[in-house]
Specification:
Radius of gyration: 18 Å
Oligomer: single chain
Number of helices: 1
Order of helices and strands: HEEEEEE
Largest sheet: 3 strands, antiparallel
Structural class: alpha+beta
Number of strands: 6
Amino acid sequence: LYLGCIATEYLMNKEKELDTPTPTYALSIENHSFCTSRYGTRAICGTVLNNSANTYSLVSVDINLYDKDGALIGNTYDSIRDLESGRQWKFETLLTVNATGYNIKVKGY
């Protein structure tokens, strides 16, 4: 019975690890800036590089948008599936507000 509890606890911890994003050092944002999207609208464009030896099933960039006074006025994101080891992903997030600044984070699962 005691070994069963240890095994159950081990499996629960492994399950939590699968739900936790991979540390961002394995994914790096190579560049990013305000740009014009492929639709001719204002956007934020950039490149993410998978520095790890693994393929990520899902990678996302989450961006908070700020006005000229530094107030948070919105957010945007982009995501891709199956980013292979050593590959780059060119992301593009459309803007629906008139942001003058932003903060960007990358996550991989």
